[in-house]
Amino acid sequence: DGHYDLDAIADAVDEETAIVWLCNPNNPTGTYHSHETIEAFIQKIPSNVTIILDEAYAEYVTAKDFPRTLELMEKYPNVAMLRTFSKAYALAALRIGYLITTKELAAQLNVLRPPFNTTRLSEQAALAALEDQDHLKKAVEINQQERQKFYELDTNLTIYPSQTNFVFVETSEVEALNEAILKE
Predict the structure, then answer these.
(1) Among 135, 132, 17, 56, which Cα is nearest to 69's?
(2) Is 63 helix (H, G, I), strand (E, B) or coil?
(3) Which of 21, 115, 153, 164 could tie 57 with a disulfide, CB 3.0–4.6 Å?
(4) What is the DSSP-derived secondary structure letter of residue 85?
(5) Is 42 in contact with 72 (CB distance < 8 Å)?
(6) How large is the angle between the packed helices 133-151 and 120-131, nearest 10 degrees?
C-alpha cells in the first residue's frame, strides 16, 4: 500500500540494532505515517535504539495528522529528526540540512562529521531561505495544485496519495501513463 510495514520493522529490531531510519513522508511512494502510528511504533522500539525520522519532504505535507516530531522528541529521547533545504527550499545543489536531537547523540554523530562539511554559501543560502517564507508558501501551494492534477487524470492506474512533491504511480502500463499525462 506504499507504506513501510512498521510492525515488521519493529519485529526485526534486536540487540544488534543501533538505528532505525524512517523516511516520513516516504520516498519513493510519497505516503506517510500519522502521529499516532509513529508514536505506537516508537513505543515498540527499545530506548537504546536511535530512531531517525527523516522528514525531507515535511514542508509539502498537508495531512493534519502528520507526526509532531518535536513533541515526540520531548517524550522519547531516542528520537531524532532530519530536515533538508534540498526539497521545498530548492537548495539541493548546496547540500545543506539539519538534525534535531539530544546533546548526547549530537556529540556521537559529530565525531563522524567531516570538517568543513558545509560551505559558507550553503549556510547563507539556508538562512536566506528560512527568511523567505513567502516563497516557501508559494512553492508549496503550487506543488499542491500540480499534485492534485495527477489524481484527476482520466486513467485506471494506481496513483498513491502523496504528501511530497512527487507522486508514485504503480503500473506496468507506462505508455498509458505517458498518454494520460500528455493529454493533460
Answers:
(1) 56
(2) coil
(3) 164
(4) S
(5) yes
(6) 80
Cβ–Cβ < 8 Å for 89, 126? yes
* Tens digit of each residue's pLDDT (9 = 90 or more) over 6-61: 999 999 999 999 999 999 999 999 999 999 999 999 999 999 999 999 999 999 99
- The residue ranges of DSSP E strands in the chain, in sequence order, are 19-23, 50-54, 79-84, 97-100, 158-159, 169-170
105-113, long-range: CB within 8 Å, 24+ apart, which pairs?
105/50, 105/80
Task: List, in sequence order, every residue forming a beta bridge with 93; answer none if it has no partner.
Answer: none
C-alpha torsion 76→4→34→85, nearest 10: 80
d(CA 164, CA 59): 8
- CB of 184 within 8 A of CB of 151? no
Give 97's strand partners. Answer: 84
pLDDT tens-place string over residues 104-163: 989 988 888 888 888 999 999 999 999 999 999 999 999 999 999 988 887 777 889 999
Please list, in sequence order, all residues whose beta carbon lies within 8 angstroms of the beta carbon of residue 169, skipping any fewer than 6 positions away.
150, 157, 158, 159, 160, 177
